[in-house]
Amino acid sequence: MTDSSSTGRSAGVSTAGMRRILPPDVVERGRAPFDPPPGLRGGGPVRPLDLLNGARAWLVTGFEEARTVLSDARFSADKLRHHDATSPRPPQAPVAEREDGAFVFMDPPEHTRLRRALTGQFTVRRMRQLEARVREIAVEHIEAMRAAGTRADLVPAFALPLPSLVICELLGVDYADRAEFQERTAVGLSASSTPQEQIAARAELHAFMRRLVSAKRSDPADDLLSGLVHDADPPLTDAQLVDMALLLLTAGHETTANMLGLGTFALLEHPGQLAALRAEPGLIDGAVEELLRFLSIIQLGVSRVATEPVTLGGVDLPAGATVVIATPEVNRDPRHWPDPDVLDVRRARTPHLAFGHGVHQCLGQQLARIELRIGLGELLSRLPGLRLAVPAGQVPVRDEMLVFGVRSLPVTW
Fold first, then answer.
1. E strands present in 61-200
2. Cα separation of 48 and 393, whole Å?
3. Are 339 and 352 in contact (CB under 8 A)?
4. Among 3, 20, 400, which Cα is nearest to 202's?
């Protein structure tokens, strides 16, 4: 999610800009790292949100209202054709035709064509192959931690490298290039990197992806990027392919890494739930869904613009209104879940919005679930004594980012 030759890199810039103009009480969680920020609570399912840039948006905290925004064509995701109040950039002249591949910021029919090309690459066969590889990677890293002693920081030792290597498998990154890819990814997406380091790393990742696309054109293999290069009809341009690869990287790496780290932290801080999961490993699928709902790490990164007057949750919104979906509170809507603030790995499966909804629902959700199910399952089975190595209050969280998580997670076993 990222602007260089196209709007691919603008996504990363825009989300960082959004964070700077949001009131602190709607993003900072303080001493309650697993609960929504206090500013999201109360006030009805749709209410005004005054931004620090002087603009007004509308905050959506109700489950049904959020589903409506994400599925109703009157709410646009296209930030080039409709000005989003959370954008740090001034309104731009509408574009007649888009040439980039950042389809998450497009509406149909442009969005439909690019998404369809990518959907065709997420085959059942490829997911099954990746499942075996996810387990190999997870076990490899857990055994490396055990060999090094009885203590580790779970974020760099496990949570970050697992999804990074899975993305390498998905895109067909050569083994010789994977160390460079992982290093650039870690710096570019790390909350601890300086802005200058992040900008440089992301520029290098963009160049890396250009080289990778070129390599797949001349020497295709059995991977997702080769499929996009050679199977799309009509063919995709290099700019579109680079943008799509970078979107997959950001969406597939940062979110899963943060869920692995934060999900482990949450289980360690809820010993009854952890014990239930250890006693009944078959609960893992439901536990993953419950952690996705309970933690909802995409804080306020999803916004839409009303293209005409709309009544939402009893509130009249004018054309041009920006609506911001507060996923952590949406997934705690008491109208939809009993005891929504309770983590319950035995909770009956109910739809949540951790992966979005409608035409923009996360394409890689099946793979994310595989990584979380296997990653958390292997951690709990291979490290039966796993526990925090520091008091919970000393675990540093990253609520200054739009994707919530932990900066580090010192553990012992």
1. 75-76, 151-153
2. 33
3. no
4. 3
Residue 281 gets the label, from left (phi > 0), alpha (psi -120 to 50) or beta, of: alpha
Instruction: Say if residues 44 and 327 touch (Cβ distance below 8 Å).
Output: no
pLDDT tens by residue, 115-136: 999 999 998 889 988 999 999 9
Using the predicted structure, report yes or no on whether residue 45 has a pLDDT greater than 50: yes
Task: Compute the distance between CA of residue 337 and CA of residue 333 in angstroms, rounded to an integer.
Answer: 6
Q: Which residues does 175 contact at the CB level (< 8 Å), separation at least 6?
A: none
pTM for this entry: 0.91
398 φ, ψ (degrees, to nearest 5): -115, 75
For the chain, the average pLDDT equals 90
Q: What is the DSSP string of 30-43?
A: TT-TTS--GGGSSS
H-only helix segments in 88-237: 110-119, 124-148, 154, 161-171, 178-189, 195-218, 224-231
Helix (H, G, I), strand (E, B) or coil at 189: helix
CB count within 10 Å of CB 88 equals 14
Section 287-306 average pLDDT: 94
Q: Tokens in use for 237?
A: 């341009």
- What DSSP string describes 276-289? HHHH-GGGHHHHHH
Asked if residues 56 and 311 have their Cβ atoms less than 8 Å apart, the reply is no
